[in-house]
Amino acid sequence: MATIELWKDYKKLNLLARQMEVQPKFFAETFFSQTMYHDTEQIHFGDDEYEEGISAFAHPLAEGKVLLDQGTEVKAFAPAYIKEAAVHDPLKSLRVLPEEDYSGSYTPMQRERIHLARNVARLKARYQNRIEIMALEALKDGKATISGEGITETVLNFGRDASLKEVASADADKWSDPSFKILGQLSRMKRLIKQHSRFGAIATTVHLNQSTADYLLQNKEILDLYDKRRGVDLNMNLTPYQKYTDIEPIGRIGHFNFLIHSGYYRENGTKKEILKDGEVILTAPSIGGKKHFGRIISRKAKYKPLSYFLRPYYEDRTETQFVEIHSAPILIPHDVNAAAFMQVL
After folding, report:
1. Using CA atoms, how far apart are residues 247 and 207, in angstroms rounded to an integer?
2. Backbone φ, ψ for residue 300 (5° rounding)
3. How far apart are alpha carbons 141 and 203 in whole angstroms?
């Protein structure tokens, strides 16, 4: 019995993608750890789950068009549909790969499978980056923004209390001033989180990048209190951040644990940091977010709700192979006021 080529077999292709190990993303996995799938036309959020009264999202259309006026904050919308393809040039199968012997130790068909696997890994990594950015936006601003080429910008407001965002304007209010009371600012935001969150959340984890941490560690107040045990407790147990290669715990200062984030992604060829200079997020574990996924608009996926779906197709005239990823995600924080955002530089 003849076997189907891997790039034509969408079932094996999706199995390959799910078996691939891709670097896990911290914010999406830590604060949006639960997943829900919706096989109805709309995604429903009842009052019991989400007190702020967001009633529904429309599921994505095949074109991924948003069905609302530009810049409108809404309680029901059709989110843009993730639909991105990677292409395999057939000539690549004839070229010797860097890991081969000089004369070529792989056959063209073997190289084709290698290129296919790399394209699948690339699509999966880009998809995970998108999920991570959605998680980060929900934590920073308490919102979800859907925008892109040919898509009307739509903003979903989860109802973050305005007091949980601070932007430093005067130099004396920035962390670049060594005498600024950093712990005082964090303690004030911690009290506001406890006041406005649903269940009196206790926020003790501070997220920042390396440049911002450099200013933190030059602060006069911080230098006297800094605990340099760097992410291990007194019993020398591994930290829960061990699997995240872009997370570095730098110790406990006062009542707060500090995590440096070095993750990045590329957009239009430009490298962008997950957390930019001066961005600081204070979080409590009770955010309790969920990843919600709608139906995949593809007959091959039988229009089922999935985290993502890979669909191969072929351009006969040019003998070019494509692998396309589909997904319909939205990330919802259960307690949007269990986090605060500060721009400190």
Report:
1. 9
2. -65, -30
3. 16
Structure tokens of 128? 């995970």
Could you tell me if 149 and 179 lie in one domain?
no
Q: Domain for residue 69, yes or no?
A: no
At 67-88, the pLDDT tens digits run 333 343 444 455 556 888 888 7
**Domain enclosing residue 175, as ranges:** 162-230+242-287+336-343
- The predicted model scores a pTM of 0.82
User: From residue 170, how far is each of 147, 213, 343, 344 by CA, in Å?
Assistant: 32, 20, 12, 10
Judgement on whether residues 175 and 275 belong to the same structural domain of the protein: yes
**More reliable by pLDDT, 234 or 149:** 149
Q: Return the higher-pLDDT residue of 198 and 269.
A: 198
Element (H, E) at 42: strand 42-44
Looking at the fold, whether 190 and 293 belong to one and the same domain comes out as: no
Asked whether the beta carbons of 153 and 71 are under 8 A apart, the reply is yes
Residues 255 and 317 grouped into a single domain: no
Give me the DSSP letters along 155-175: EEE----GGGEEE--SGGGST
**Structural domain count, the chain:** 2
Q: Which residues contact 194 (CB under 8 A, 6 or more apart)?
A: 200, 201, 202, 203
Looking at the fold, whether 226 and 181 belong to one and the same domain comes out as yes
CATH number at 276 reads 3.30.1930.10
Residue 283, φ and ψ in degrees, nearest 5: -130, 150
Inside any domain, residue 142: yes
Q: Which helix (H) or strand (E) holds 323?
A: strand 320-327
Q: Note the pLDDT tens digit of each residue in 258-290.
A: 999 999 888 878 889 999 999 999 999 999 999
Give me the sheet containing 151-157, strands edge to edge. 72-74, 151-157, 143-148
Pair (151, 24) in one structural domain: yes
